[in-house]
Amino acid sequence: MVHVSPVIFSQVVPTAGDAVLAVVVLYHRTFESIPCASRLVEWLSMSNTAPGRLNLTHCLVYDNSPVAQPVQNLQQDKRMHVFHDASNGGTRAAYLYALQLAQALKCQWILFLDHDTGLPACFLEDAGNALGAVGPGISVGAVVPRVFDNDVQISPARITSYGRVWVSRKEAAITQVSCTVTAIASASLVRTEFLAAVLPIPASFSLDYLDHWLFRELQRQAAHIAVSSARVEHSLSVQSMKSMEVQRYLCILAAELAFLRDEPGYSRALHLLWHAGRTVKLALTTRRIALVGVCSRAALNIVRAA
Predict the structure, then answer these.
(1) Cα atoms found within 13 Å of the Cα of residue 174, Cβ hemisphere only
(2) 82 - beta bridge partners?
(3) Which residues, 6 or more positions from 81, have their beta carbon under 8 angstroms from its beta carbon?
(4) DSSP structure class, residue 237
(5) Model confidence pLDDT, tens digit, residues 165-192
(6) Per residue in 68-97, pLDDT tens?
(7) Which CATH class is domain 6-236?
(8) Phi, psi (5° rounding) for residue 175?
(9) pLDDT score of 3 more than 60
């Protein structure tokens, strides 16, 4: 469990209603420089307590940079919480910290945000409408938007037993409880009590595949995933393999294997075939010998996996 600073938690003022805590995970970036910063500040300034609405009441800036980034006047606003994690605990550490803060503030929802995600003005309203459309007796664990990277839709999606991700293009829907439904965590609203119910988060998902693990575990808790009509822009780092760091791709493949080995109905044979196809495509499109070498070693790990 992440250590929680007693200074921050002694200053929080609990809130009630449909309160939302946004957590922004940063690395070598200032809060003011990211696409969603102005939107979050705007929502905080116009926060209301109307029942049945999703209201942003607090924002956590979780800085994973080795050296703390300038925060200017953020800490003068009691609704803004800044935490510097010099150890770079990753997204996992940020989510665990945000959960404890949300519980202390009595926020029912946590909005996860990466530094490269933009938010439309209607985002919270669309999420609220998606919740309002849910029928009685349905427990919603998360509300996710439609996420695009350069006009290519990347979320929500379904993930197969061998790791292939298929994008779902339904405009707005309530998913059935199924461990195959997945989404980009950034710009997702997750109900605080359901996030607490899926703990602990395995250390193997400190960054990569945390999204897939989270949505699988939510559904294992019988939570439905609501899909709003909001359109969100997000820059997906794994889309650009020509600039991917070799060590990062090694971590991605290791996390993928750890995730799939715990997937109901995991097919090692299909995973190996799918991985072989990716390796060939990578060799032809990037011609980066180091990446192909990483993929070759990963294939051996798939074979050895019990």
Answers:
(1) 17
(2) 61
(3) 8, 12, 58, 59, 60, 61, 101
(4) G
(5) 999 776 566 676 677 889 999 999 999 9
(6) 988 776 666 789 999 999 999 999 999 999
(7) alpha beta
(8) -75, 150
(9) no
